[in-house]
Amino acid sequence: MRPLPRPHQGNGATGSAPGQGFLPQESFLRILHLEHRRSERSGRRFVLMLVDAANLIASEREAQAVAKILDVLARSTRETDVTGWYHEGSVVGIIFTEIGQTEGRTVASALLAKVSAALSGTLAIEQINQVHISFYVFPEEWDENGNDGASEVHPDTAPHRGSREISSILKRGLDILGSLAAIVLFSPFLIGAALAVKLTSAGPVLFRQRRVGQYGKTFTFLKFRSMHTANNPAAHEAFVKSLIRAKHGAGSRNGTDQVFKLTNDPRITPVGRFIRRTSIDELPQFFNVLAGDMSLVGPRPPIPYEVRHYDTWHQRRFLAVKPGITGLWQVTARSKVGFDDMVRLDLQYARTWSLWLDLKILLQTPRAVLFGDGAY
């Protein structure tokens, strides 16, 4: 595959600033990462436009058309915008900053119309049809249906290359082997808990709930049912909203013990209280791991109504890595931790992740379950 030609310095194709070409991929992705963090702090939107002309690259006779595309893009940007290679030589990225309070999708539609009109005056229709233009707005409105562009606008959360890509493959291998071994090892507890739940309260053995996985994609989360059926989730949603927004302890009157679970919850059955305290209710999640929706180690997957109350930076906890059964905050603080601190521990795990860290957390988990506080 031939790379896209660089825009000529003398024809106005200057990229992000006069006299300069398009930024190389590493520099552009670094700026995108920083713009993402700036937007998290300030709440100011930016739009990422990706122009994929890879289908034109294979043909030598299309070289002139590709050069025209680059010139059109250069003329469509302001000095404050950043232009560079999202994928070196094949996909151009443009970061449109400081778009004000205008709705991001409105800006994206206007940009698409502008670029499309410019391309129509330069290229043949069959050439235009081979160019794919996409837009991503950040901060984006989270879509509960799981439709997202997170892996594009968050290149720092995309699959890692090189050694970390190999480690990711090893992590998946560990997940498969570990979950299979756990299902066999804990089969007496699985059978015993299923019988206890079925015989002591009306309702299904398993509790199924929609949870948010990596990149905002939802999946069916499994637990042993520990509550009475036909419960209204409004009380828990109100509790979660208060915990996230007020940022104070909700587990005690003086607020010194911060927890992310309701204590003395009347919805919980007697058997449910025992299996929750011993974390036996979590055992069905090994099937989630086996299916690839979760990992053995990672942040806990949030409920969709939790995410509606998140600050923008909180969303990174389900963007960076796949959710897990256990994690860094579970073995260091269990439930006795404030929400922001829990998220910080999740992000710390994502930044420092390694296969050795996963093994270390897995080895520490039994002790946290047997001797730790915070399971209700």
Q: Structural class, from helix and strand content?
A: alpha+beta
CA-based gyration radius:
25 Å
The rough form would be described as elongated
Provide a count of the helices. Answer: 16
Low-confidence stretches: 1-20, 248-259
Major beta sheet summary: 4 strands, antiparallel
Q: What's the number of extended β-strand segments?
A: 8
Beta fraction: 5-15%
Widest β-sheet, arrangement of strands: 2-3-1-4
- The ordered H/E elements are HEHHEEHHEHHHEEHHHEHHEHHH
Describe the structure.
There is one protein chain. With 376 residues, the chain is of the alpha+beta class. The protein is 45% helix and 12% strand. It has 16 helices and eight strands. It is elongated, with a radius of gyration of 25 Å. Residues 1-20 and 248-259 have low confidence and may be disordered.
In brief:
This protein has 376 residues and is α+β, with helices and mostly antiparallel strands.
Summary tags:
two-stranded antiparallel ribbon; four-stranded antiparallel β-sheet; 2 domains; Alpha-Beta Plaits; 376 residues; alpha+beta
Lay out the secondary structure:
Elements: H1 25-42, E1 46-52, H2 54-57, H3 63-75, E2 82-87, E3 91-96, H4 104-120, H5 125-128, E4 132-138, H6 150-153, H7 163-185, H8 187-200, E5 206-212, E6 218-224, H9 234-246, H10 270-277, H11 285-291, E7 295-297, H12 304-307, H13 316-319, E8 324-326, H14 328-332, H15 339-352, H16 355-371
Parallel strand pairs: 7-8
Antiparallel strand pairs: 1-3, 1-4, 2-3, 5-6
